[in-house]
């Protein structure tokens, strides 16, 4: 089984399904998979953008590429699309759950609707897709499931409580799913990036109050992130934190949480928010 999983290190002719594939991290993962010769399948709600990405993948890979309109929070539609993929494309070798959204608002000001939407997209949809595809991969004896967590799931930051909770849920879900599928040759890789230079922050942080606190060298470029992700597929890697030095930050926070809270509040000038109450 490990020998078959190692075959995923070369993506040529492997079927790679990516949710959130119309933009941002999902799009860059799709393009990089195509450069490595994969048969790329992208899913998202915006079919026009999806078709553009699929066309780019076709040019890069020289292999068929596919686009399916999908709202990942609709389980019936998820079942329908997965069934269509298996009939029109083939069995899925790699699943990437990259669909996600954020809202960086203080808990006291955040609506229940927004909280629920983040849970539905970032966590529940990811769990359901992972569950559906894991069953198929276990039957075929190999595969890889790549789930997008976040550094926010390991290190708390002000005004990101609900978002961070969904990402912490992804990390713990993967920890247990990994044990359940390991004997079947299925890799579960959790990707925890820091802030990535995508349009994600246009909606999550429209006034720029979060990003403005971060130095430019902390911002991750999505194309570089995609290369790092694919470099770890087909191995026994459990998770990757990008940039790599953030692993030390999360370790330090677990050891000295009180000091960590103080440092984070100072870094984000969190007292300013408290004065506004």
UniProtKB/TrEMBL annotation:
InterPro entries: KR_dom, NAD(P)-bd_dom_sf, SDR_fam. Keywords: Oxidoreductase. Residues 14-199 form the Ketoreductase domain. Its EC number is 1.-.-.-. Pfam families: adh_short. GO terms for molecular function: oxidoreductase activity. It is an enzyme of class 1 (oxidoreductase). Transmembrane segments: none annotated. GO terms for cellular component: membrane. It comes from the Bacteria. Belongs to the short-chain dehydrogenases/reductases (SDR) family. This is SDR family oxidoreductase. It comes from Limosilactobacillus allomucosae.
